[in-house]
Specification:
Two copies of one chain form a homodimer. With about 450 residues, the first copy, chain A, is an alpha/beta fold. The first copy, chain A, has a domain of about 220 residues: Aspartate Aminotransferase, domain 2. Helices cover about 30% and strands about 15% of the residues of chain A. Chain A is built from ten helices and 16 strands. In chain A, strands 3-9-8-7-6-4-5 form a seven-stranded mixed β-sheet. In chain A, helix 4 links the parallel strand 4 and strand 5. In chain A, helix 2 packs parallel to helix 7. The first copy, chain A, starts with about 30 loop residues before the first strand and ends in a 10-residue tail after the last helix. The interface between A and B is large, with 65 and 65 residues. Chains A, B: Belongs to the alliinase family. Chains A, B: GO terms for molecular function: carbon-sulfur lyase activity; transaminase activity. Chains A, B: InterPro entries: Alliinase_C (IPR006948), Ethylene_sulfur-biosynth (IPR050478), PyrdxlP-dep_Trfase (IPR015424), PyrdxlP-dep_Trfase_major (IPR015421), PyrdxlP-dep_Trfase_small (IPR015422). Chains A, B: It comes from Protea cynaroides. Chains A, B: Pfam families: Alliinase_C.
Chain lengths: ~450, ~450
């Protein structure tokens, strides 16, 4: 059976050839979310090293306290001390962020910290002034993380407002604004810089307030080229180690007042952050840092198996797995021209000491075939659920596919794409045309 | 040395007699927050029964899944199944809420669920209608939990707005509103019912949207007179078991659509709720339910020590401790008329099968002495930090004192109050007057 692509540029009910794949399962492959469950395999292998025992009487207080009940003196009064220590340690080891003389603020995932950051920036302008700039515009270059618009606007806040693509943002003269920079970017994996260039803004007015989302600035996804050093930098446990269920993120913040206001936001929003998950994050980050220090030099990226007593370097394992997935995906769609994927230049990674490609958390797949308008709809007919480009303020010709889910889903994805592409190739060779996947 | 109370009704710098107490420590007794650390003693005694081991590979997904990766089919897609089961089980055992045919929604503490509930109620009215009632008024009878105004208004939402004391709320005809009912009430411990009575509102218009906050409706604080059965009922791990650091709360919700919208709020706010803390809450709630079932009948309230193999009934232990604290506090201020405390009628508790008094989580202490305007300021000069009545929309003659903090703080509180009261009694007897605590 061969698939046929008829011109559907003007069709609202574009259908992909359902007969184009024939794997053992007819199940839906849901790669819509970026659920980082691929890292489970590593954590299963670590045995007790990644386990955490929480005694029934531990961390019952609202406040972060040591075992004697003495409170942590951090600005972020609900942050467990060992969590902060392990955050600073892993950044030092990986070299992806400056943390010296910076404040750490823990959050219930980085999406809470994003809201804390826009809240703190908005409050840096007096609310009751006659020329109050509120709601302050929030922008991000498209394609941007699909949750940003809804997370910014769901409460119809008078403090800030989503204004879409930063590339087309003008605003009025001297109007302050908040620009989000996700780097590497979700959905497309590219390294990003701010794009709004406000010429003519006077000093202290119309200033850019930047939030750098570094969720994916870890060695398994991209080369670590320099320690990031920006005003507000967001990181998340989900994407760094794979523990999305713990809902832990952290911000590295330069300005004391901003760190205080972000902490205040989290106090009002959830009266702090789960201490159980902070303790777990501390344990997991420690396990990773230990694994890096035990396997620092020559084993990295080389595939050598760690000795019995040692843990395999987490980033080495994770990166090898990502590289293998990307290789298979690129191979599945190659030499055909039906789909394309972004190309990422090799860069020198200070962490590994090698030139490396990027292997992003998401594949930003573009359909190149004339006649297909919507990549996600097309893929859904292959029973591959993805997130369409429009949801990212981008083109519907693109779709975002999670590359960090469990192995059997990635296997099915690649099997279905390969089958479809090779069927199409055969049909083209034979000149057979079948409409809508029906047998001739 | 004797304290003197001069008339300071018009003085802005009222000072309490600093010489009025003389305990071994000069430290500040901070009972401003309701930090439920008193329950640590119970959990220390439970040994391994309250411990939780979390393997490194557990609950990494955003979704609630069983060990085979099958997703929980609950509306609340991030809720761990065992958490939900233990929530339903403990309500059944305690008899404080109807959960059959009700939806459970887990939250990052009940403060997040409060926001989820006002969001869901606000969205039950179309946003884009020309006669949109937004922002919808949110009210609560004073004195009310001091965090409600700030938590409602910090984002200057266009959906809802804090309108203060429900007793004086009128609104316009047929204007919908949200009324919060905290019962037993924070700060004053009384059982509450809705107070807004909107006569003349037409059917479906101007309807009351009620949120019942049942944080303190547990047997250690009050008699369980009937299973509560209201539209949206909020409970919290903090006050029921003492685990404030875990940031876990839950809502019991009648309407499916409301439960869905509350879940959506939590998705947008924090993409779910810490699974580590859900698992811990499940374990702790299970331990309590087991302790109740093992010691159901005659041991309850009678002070009998559980056999070696059994856990003491948690609610029995917690209630005895609360009763003892309240007895000592009432004793410290009695027969003097300087301070007063609310009196709570004895009620029949279905859980214990006995008539019992209430022993609220907070003491709502009122200063009765002519000349003292601000109870919290007065107490602060005895180095007792409390929260002043004004913060609850109430009288500054009252102050809220946490009764659930660690034992040594409660001991210091009672020691200082006793010393002050007995010094004052001696002075009155001797007719000695000393200004501002200075020696004569």
């Amino acid at each position: 059976m061969c698939p046929t692509i008829v011109n559907r540029r003007h069709s609202s009910s574009a259908t992909a050839p359902k007969a184009a794949y024939n794997d053992s399962s007819d199940s839906v492959v849901n790669l819509n979310q970026g659920n980082p469950t691929m890292f489970e395999t590593y954590w299963r292998k670590t045995g007790k090293k990644g386990d955490l025992l929480i005694p029934g009487c531990r961390s019952m207080s609202y406040f972060a306290e040591d075992l004697a009940g003495t409170r942590n003196q951090s600005i972020c009064w609900f942050m467990e001390k060992e969590f902060e220590e392990e955050v600073r340690r892993i950044h030092d080891l990986v070299g992806n962020a400056v943390t010296e003389d910076r404040y750490i603020v823990v959050g219930t995932g980085s999406v809470q910290l994003y809201q804390a950051a826009i809240y703190a920036y908005a409050l840096s302008y007096p609310l009751d002034a006659p020329d109050s700039p509120h709601p302050i515009s929030v922008v991000c270059a498209a394609p941007y993380y699909s949750a940003y618009p809804a997370v910014t606007d769901y409460l119809k806040s008078g403090l800030y407002k989503w204004k879409g693509d930063a590339n087309s943002f003008k605003g009025t003269n001297n109007e302050p604004y908040i620009e989000l920079i996700t780097s590497p970017n979700n959905p497309d994996g590219f390294i990003r810089e701010p794009v709004v260039n406000r010429h003519g803004a006077e000093d202290g007015e119309g200033r850019a307030m930047l939030i750098h989302d570094y969720a994916y600035y870890w060695p398994q996804y991209t080369a670590i080229t320099a320690p990031a050093d920006n005003d507000i930098m967001l990181f998340t446990f989900s994407k760094s180690t794979g523990h999305a269920g713990s809902r832990i993120g952290w911000a590295v913040v330069k300005d004391r007042k901003m760190a205080e206001t972000m902490t205040k936001f989290i106090e009002l929003n959830t009266i702090g952050v789960s201490k159980d998950s902070q303790l777990r994050a501390a344990k997991i980050l420690k396990t990773i840092s230990d694994s890096c220090q035990q396997n620092k030099s020559d084993q990295l990226w080389n595939g050598a198996v760690a000795a019995d007593e040692k843990l395999e370097n987490f980033f080495y394992c994770a990166r090898n797995l990502m590289a293998e997935r990307w290789k298979r995906l690129r191979n599945a769609i190659k030499d055909n021209g039906f789909f394309s994927l972004p190309e990422y230049p090799k860069k020198f990674c200070n962490f590994s000491g090698q030139f490396t490609e990027a292997y992003p958390s998401f594949a930003w797949l573009k359909v190149e075939e004339e006649g297909i308008e919507d990549c996600a709809s097309f893929l859904s007919e292959l029973k591959i659920l993805t997130r369409g480009g429009k949801e990212f303020g981008g083109s519907p010709l693109c779709a975002r596919i999670s590359m960090v889910d469990r192995q059997h889903l990635i296997d099915l994805l690649i099997e279905r794409l390969s089958t479809f592409i090779s069927s199409k190739r055969k049909c083209e060779k034979n000149g057979v045309i079948i409409e809508g996947g029906r047998s001739p």
